[in-house]
Design goal:
The chain has 13 helices and no strands. Helices cover 71% and strands 0% of the residues. The chain has helices spanning 2-38, 42-45, 60-66, 71-99, 108-120, 125-134, 152-163, 167-175, 180-191, 193-209, 212-217, 228-252, 266-299. The chain is flat. By secondary structure, the protein is mostly helical.
């Protein structure tokens, strides 16, 4: 019986290892394929057949993305936006969640219902634009930060996590004379590192990849406030425009010698753009991974 269990256990472990390797390959293949195309000559990439290794190695695709006008300023704006959003969002949502952990709060259910309604019903883009115009958020860096400082979904997750903490900790602190502010920042906050890291990662990824806010609420006059995601989107559109010019010239029989050096295809630039925009997130994720799963699982359990 013991030998039979041992054989079955080995088979089970072998299947797990094999299954995990399949998952790893499936996860890495798209990224390696994109990286190979980003490092391959644009005209050669148009032929297809690029898998894990570039046929004609070149840095031209990355040079097109990185040397775009205003890249350094856009990168600074993106980093500043992510840092400000993460810090302010964590503070606001953390304090709101702490308040709603108290069942003695007067009107607690009504306030929660009031805050929950906008999550299901929104006025749309035009009322949002009018609101931002009236409060001075148009063409303003605060437009990146203030509207996303509070999220009902994230606040509920943080509150649920706080409810899983031992109630005796706060009671003991009160007996020792600690104020609510001291309990919040000296006792509760250190215990909430997993869920705070989880929310911080969500906010950082969302703000880093967001470019629609710039498109809706900023004009060309304030291009110094454009983030990296919007700038790279413009680079991609410019590349598409060049490719369209080449195709039109070919169809009309015109001389395309002026486009000979423009051999970077839209797909190659898009791949380089994906690599550039994902590297900061990939570099950040390992530092938060140990908190991420723990925070999500505990924050998702409702008492």
């Amino acid at each position: 019986m013991r030998r039979r269990r041992s054989i079955s256990r080995r088979c089970f472990d072998g299947f797990n290892v094999f299954f995990m390797w399949i998952i790893i390959v499936l996860m890495l293949f798209p990224y390696l394929n994109v990286l190979a195309k980003a490092l391959n000559d644009g005209a050669d990439s148009a032929r297809g057949g690029i898998l894990f290794w570039p046929r004609v190695f070149t840095w031209d695709n990355f040079a097109t993305v990185i040397t775009a006008e205003g890249f350094g300023q856009a990168f600074f704006i993106s980093v500043a936006r992510v840092v400000c959003s993460v810090v302010l969002t964590i503070i606001v949502q953390f304090m709101c969640a702490y308040v709603f952990t108290y069942k003695e709060l007067v009107g607690r259910s009504g306030i929660l219902l009031y805050l929950m309604i906008p999550g299901y019903f929104g006025g749309g883009l035009i009322p949002q634009y009018i609101l931002y115009s009236n409060i001075g958020l148009l063409n303003n860096f605060l437009c990146y930060v203030i509207p996303g400082m509070f999220s009902m979904y994230n606040m509920i997750i943080i509150r649920t996590y706080m409810n899983s903490l031992p109630l005796g900790l706060k009671e003991a602190a009160k007996i020792d004379g600690a104020s609510e502010i001291k309990i919040l920042f000296r006792i509760v906050m250190p215990l909430c590192k997993p869920i705070m890291a989880t929310i911080a990662l969500w906010v950082a990824v969302g703000d880093w990849n967001d470019w629609t806010t710039t498109m809706y609420f900023f004009t060309r006059k304030y291009d110094h406030l454009f983030p990296l995601s919007y700038l790279l989107q413009q680079v991609l559109k410019e590349t598409e425009r060049i490719q369209q010019m080449i195709q039109d010239a070919l169809r009309s029989g015109q001389d395309i010698s002026q486009f000979q050096e423009m051999n970077i295809t839209t797909e190659a630039v898009r791949c380089a753009q994906i690599i550039v925009t994902t590297i900061p997130i990939i570099a950040t994720y390992p530092f938060l991974q140990k908190y991420f799963i723990h925070g999500v699982t505990l924050g998702a359990v409702k008492d």
